[in-house]
Structure formats: structure tokens, C-alpha cells
């Protein structure tokens, strides 16, 4: 039978879960007033703020939060020439925060995301739900029709093979959005008034072999298990494309999780996404991506990682090679992106020498 | 953008949907008093009742329902020696009803399933939801994080390839159960008091390449698209196994849907499952299946159907061959089952000559 994860059920646990093992990464260009609303849930945790755009601007952080803040000058100073792999003027810069974190878990959230309410009207502690998702196993190898079998009141249904009921380690927890849904520019334009008001009370594992669109707005992951695959690519200033940073990370990450038998969940928790970005600006950023993804998706659907790749880093470098070879034909951008993927791994290993050593040791 | 299916939203549509194109198939051993509760929803439709067990017993059907009833004598008379493929003393006999139906759609329900209520307290018209599911496309090739993109108020999210937004034809709609969950005997024994009270307001496509445990309690399908794959196998009297009838059909059906690019949905609608079957009796029926499924699942996960199989019948016969060859090694039962699968297709084509002709014509 499935064991349920015993996690306090109150919205504000008396001892915050994983308090010293989780960083909250926030990319921003403005004062972080949105944190006021999250104070009861986030204050016990350490924040890593990645300031995008003009580094001379001062970002105000509400009092009482424990944080470190990096602007572009900091990124350049810390990474030197390898800073070229971190996007500028795009929220893709958030992945720098993943790299400098020293914790096992990361939760990342956009600064236009507020606390949502569940159908009973109670504030949703999004972080607590992500932690529950990450601490309980996933079921990537077979589909359970009653959703998460590890949740209280649920289990595996008749016909679910017993040998698969231990599940897999969960690497990623992808949360959803009430109010403004995460639509692309064409959909935004056609449905400017559409709001998401449906609260679907479920967490599910994205099955092995299935790709999905991972949104970076409300996302948590296990850095030790999958961190080096969470590179948000080259977007924004000087790049021909934007708004595909999280998608790119999601596709790379999923192929690697499938290879390493790790699980990826989507569903709860919801956040309240407060405002739609400008669809005209978005269209400009997205339009090449809209064409390119028609080739990118089949590429990732067919990508296979050699058996001998037994660390995330090795898997990622193998993917980078395949990106250069196969997607490089579509546009020179992908050659540049493939090189940046390699630089990212070099920078990751430089800043995380112990993991790199462990990983390399494990690999030998 | 996704088009939404325009279907009347009232629980009791003034003109019942697909009134002349859908049969309700019910396997039973008792009087069908449960139909009283379903009267507002089922009365406009034609019922096919498959009487299991003693054919001399009279099954009472509440007044006002339009039905045909088949007992074992009828099955033997209609199918002759081919009747051997229809199970006896097991609800697997329901698939005889699929075969004799002359309609495009079939909904099948167990006689211990009652009308459930949605969270607002309204009676759920399960049949109407199944019809909505069948009439709108599926999305087997890529995962949409906001669930069914064709539902009102929803759409495809950012990063969903535009070329895949037409979706695939939906062949199967698998509904769920409130109250008594569909657990196997071991889980029933360990959790005798577990009840499902979680209403998950979602319909999702089971992704291509992913198997799931299909339950026959609350199930609808498009007979024209997938009917011949809906064989519930050899269970019950004289067989070494029970309670794997729907599972077997689900695994065969899913492999064929994946091959033919058809969609399979699960989620809404819920029915109220009134009583748990006896776990001790269930264990006796299931225990060989519990072992065997550890081999059956990998078998279906790795089964490939030759490209030239372009009808459900051909796909099914190819699977039967593979079952005999590969699962026959586990137990002689699978050789018998593989033969029954062939008999089933012969019987299907005999009773459905026009489809068979069309299919054969199409195949040439």
C-alpha cells in the first residue's frame, strides 16, 4: 500500500518544512512588495534574488526577509567570461540563482504571483505543497487513474502493478495558476478576457516519455537530483527569442529525468497570477519560437541519451551535443545555445565543486 | 485556439444527446432497480442487458425502459461454437453487448453504481459527460498542464505546439468513482474503510505510450473507432483468473489506440460506487493476475503493431499472435486467451458484416 507523507496539515506549520534545506529564487526588475503577501509562508526561508536589467537600480525588499541579491555586475564578477551563459533582460536570469544556491531544494516564483485561495477560501501555502510533492514519490512508469496514490485518502487502483508501487524519486514539482493562465501571445490575443477559475484538486506525475510545457512561474525542484539540467537558456537581450526559457529547461529536464528514472509532477499548488503580460511584446519575443518548437518537440521526443551517462551533467552535455548537431541546422542560434549549455555546466561545476566531484566520482 | 464543444449545459438536455446513436450496456445477475435512480438520464436511451449466470432466472427491469436482454442461452444460440469466447459467471460477459449493439457509441455501467453529486450538490449526468468527452478531441501527443484544452474556460498553454492543437479523435472515455474506490483485494484488505471523497474537476488524455488501469464500471467508447478491441477476455467460470477483464481490454485497447493515433480520456464523470465487493472472494479471483501482470505490463509496454495493420481488427489479431507467442510461455491460459481473441474478432465480424466489409475494403 502507498505510504502517505506525514506533513503537518496547517497552512503555517509551526516548524517550517525544510527551513534550512530550501532556497526561494526570485528574478525581478522591481521592488519586491509582493513578498508582503507571502510573509507568513516565505519569511522562515532564505531568498536568492536575481536582479535583472540595470544593475544601478536599487531593489527594495520588505523588512524581515533573509536574502542575498545578485545584479548583473555580481554575475559578471562571479562567473567571469562564463557569465555569457546567463541571460540578460529576461527572467531566464533566474537560473543563476539555482547555481549559487547551496541548498538541496529550490522554489522559484515570479514577482507577479500572489497567494491563491482554495475552494474553501483558505490561503494556499504553495511552498508547503511543493515540498509535499517533492518529498513523496512519483509514478512515471504507469498511470494511476485516482491521481497521486501517496496522498491521504488515495492509493493505487486495481490493476496497478505491485512492483511499481514504490514509485520513483521526485525531481520536479510544477505548480499551476489561477486567474491569468499561462497562454502564448496568439491565445492571449484571441482570448484577452479568459481567466482560469477552475481549481483542480490533483497532483499527477507526467508519465515517462511524455513532454509537457514547464512554466517557471511557480516551480520547485530537487537541486541535488536535477539542478544542472535547470538551465533557462539564452533569452532576452541580444537573442532572437524570449519566453521559451522555462520551456527549454522543461524539455531538457524531462528527457533527462526519463533517462535517470526520476519523476516530474504537475498540478497543485496554485498561485494567483495577477497580471497578463503585453501580448504584442510577447508575440515579438515568441514568434520565432512558435516556428522553431515544431522542430524542437520532435527533436526532444526522439532524443536518446547514451546509457553510460549516469549523472545529470553527462546527460546534459550529451543533449547539448545533439542540439548543436540537429537543431543547429534550423538556425545558428541553436549552435550558440548548445555552446552556452556547455558553459553552464562548466560554471555549475565550478560553483558546486563538491557535487561535481561526487558526480564524477560516482561516474567512474 | 481550441474550439469548445457546444453541448447543452443542463443536466437533463431537452433533446438527449446521441439518443439514437448510443446503447447502454449493463451486465447483471439481479433485478435492475438501480435504474430508477438513473431514469432521468438513461430512459431516452436503448439498453442492452447481458444476464450473467443462471439463464432461467428472470431479471426485472423497471417499467418504461427500452431494452433487449440476452442470457447465456441467447449468447449460445447467436454465436454457436464461437460463444466460447464470452465469459460466464463474470461481468466480462458484458462485451457480448458491445458486439450485438448496432450503434456508434456504447456506455457501460455496473448495477451497483448510482448517481453521484458534484461539489455543488447537483446530480451528475454521467452519460452526458462521457458524450462530451467522446465528441471533443484528445491530446495524446503532448501534455497540457491545464488539463482538457477543449473545455470552456481552458485552452492550450504557452509552449504547446500549434501543429498538435487539433488533437486526435477520442475513442474511449474512462470515468471515475466516488465512495468505494476500485482497489484490488490486498488494498481492500489493508484499507477496508477508505472511501474516495475527492472530486477532481478534470478530464485528461492518457498520453501516447502510457498504459493505465481501465475499469469497466463507468466507461464509454466509440464502437466504430475501437469496438473490436473492447474484448473483456476469458474470466470467471472455468478460468484461472477474474477481475482482470477490463484491465485486459484496457491494455489491448490502449496499445491499439496509440498505433492508430486515437485518444483515450480519463477523469470526469464520477458515479457513486455503492458497495465494495468481498475482498476474500476478490483475492481468490485476482491472485494469479497479481503475479501475471508483472509480465503482462512489460509485454504491452513493448508490444509494437506492424505498420500495415490499419484496422482495429488487424491490430487485434496481431496482438493475439504476440500474446500467444510471448505470454503463452508464462501459462497455457494465455494460449487459450489468444485463441479466444481470434474467435472474438471472427464473431464480431460475423455480427457486424458491414463494418467488416468496410474495414476489409479499406485495408486493400
UniProtKB/TrEMBL annotation, chains A, B:
* Name of the protein this chain belongs to: UDP-arabinopyranose mutase
The record lists glycosylation at 158
Record's superkingdom? Eukaryota
The protein's organism comes out as Oryza barthii
Listed under GO cellular component are:
cytosol; Golgi apparatus; plant-type cell wall
Please tell me where this protein is predominantly located: Golgi
Task: Report the function annotation for this chain.
Answer: Probable UDP-L-arabinose mutase involved in the biosynthesis of cell wall non-cellulosic polysaccharides.
Site feature location: Required for activity: 158, 165
What is stated as this protein's family in its record? Answer: Belongs to the RGP family.
Q: What is its EC number?
A: 5.4.99.30
Top-level EC class, please?
Answer: isomerase
Classification via Pfam families: RGP
Q: Which GO terms describe its molecular function?
A: UDP-arabinopyranose mutase activity
Swiss-Prot/TrEMBL catalytic activity: UDP-beta-L-arabinofuranose = UDP-beta-L-arabinopyranose
Question: Where in or outside the cell is it found?
Answer: Golgi apparatus
Q: Which GO terms describe its biological process?
A: cell wall organization; plant-type cell wall organization or biogenesis; UDP-L-arabinose metabolic process
Q: Which UniProt keywords apply?
A: Cell wall biogenesis/degradation, Glycoprotein, Golgi apparatus, Isomerase
Coiled coil ranges: none
Amino acid at each position: 500500500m502507498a505510504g502517505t507523507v506525514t506533513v503537518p496539515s496547517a497552512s503555517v506549520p509551526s516548524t517550517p518544512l525544510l527551513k534550512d534545506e530550501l532556497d526561494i529564487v526570485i528574478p525581478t526588475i522591481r521592488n519586491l512588495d509582493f513578498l508582503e503577501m507571502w510573509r507568513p509562508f516565505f519569511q522562515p526561508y532564505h531568498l536568492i534574488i536575481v536582479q535583472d536589467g540595470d544593475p544601478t537600480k536599487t531593489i527594495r525588499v520588505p523588512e524581515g526577509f533573509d536574502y542575498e541579491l545578485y545584479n548583473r555586475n555580481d554575475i559578471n564578477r562571479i562567473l567571469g567570461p562564463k557569465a555569457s551563459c546567463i541571460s540578460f533582460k529576461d527572467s531566464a536570469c533566474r537560473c543563476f540563482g539555482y547555481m549559487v544556491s547551496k541548498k538541496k531544494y529550490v522554489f522559484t516564483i515570479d514577482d507577479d504571483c500572489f497567494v491563491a485561495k482554495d475552494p474553501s477560501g483558505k490561503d494556499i501555502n504553495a511552498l508547503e505543497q511543493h515540498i509535499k510533492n517533492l518529498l513523496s514519490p512519483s509514478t512515471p512508469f504507469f498511470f494511476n487513474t485516482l491521481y497521486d496514490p501517496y496522498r491521504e485518502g488515495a492509493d493505487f487502483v486495481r490493476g496497478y502493478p505491485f512492483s511499481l508501487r514504490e514509485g520513483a524519486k521526485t525531481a520536479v514539482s510544477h505548480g499551476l495558476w489561477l486567474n491569468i493562465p499561462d497562454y502564448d501571445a496568439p491565445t492571449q490575443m484571441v482570448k484577452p478576457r479568459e481567466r482560469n477559475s477552475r481549481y483542480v484538486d490533483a497532483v499527477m506525475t507526467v508519465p515517462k516519455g511524455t513532454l509537457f510545457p514547464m512554466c517557471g512561474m511557480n516551480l520547485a525542484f530537487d537541486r541535488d537530483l536535477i539542478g544542472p539540467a535547470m538551465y533557462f537558456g539564452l533569452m532576452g537581450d541580444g537573442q532572437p527569442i524570449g519566453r521559451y526559457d522555462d520551456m527549454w529547461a522543461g524539455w531538457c529536464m524531462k528527457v533527462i529525468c526519463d533517462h535517470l528514472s526520476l519523476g516530474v509532477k504537475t498540478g497543485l499548488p496554485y498561485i494567483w497570477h495577477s497580471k497578463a503580460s503585453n501580448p504584442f511584446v510577447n508575440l515579438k519575443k515568441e514568434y520565432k519560437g512558435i516556428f522553431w518548437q515544431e522542430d524542437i518537440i520532435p527533436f526532444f521526443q526522439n532524443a536518446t541519451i547514451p546509457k553510460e551517462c549516469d549523472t545529470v551533467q553527462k546527460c546534459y552535455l550529451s543533449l547539448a551535443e545533439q542540439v548543436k548537431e540537429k537543431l543547429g541546422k534550423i538556425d545558428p542560434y541553436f549552435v550558440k545555445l548548445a555552446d552556452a549549455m556547455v558553459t553552464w555546466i562548466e560554471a555549475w561545476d565550478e560553483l558546486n565543486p563538491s557535487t561535481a566531484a561526487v558526480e564524477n566520482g560516482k561516474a567512474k
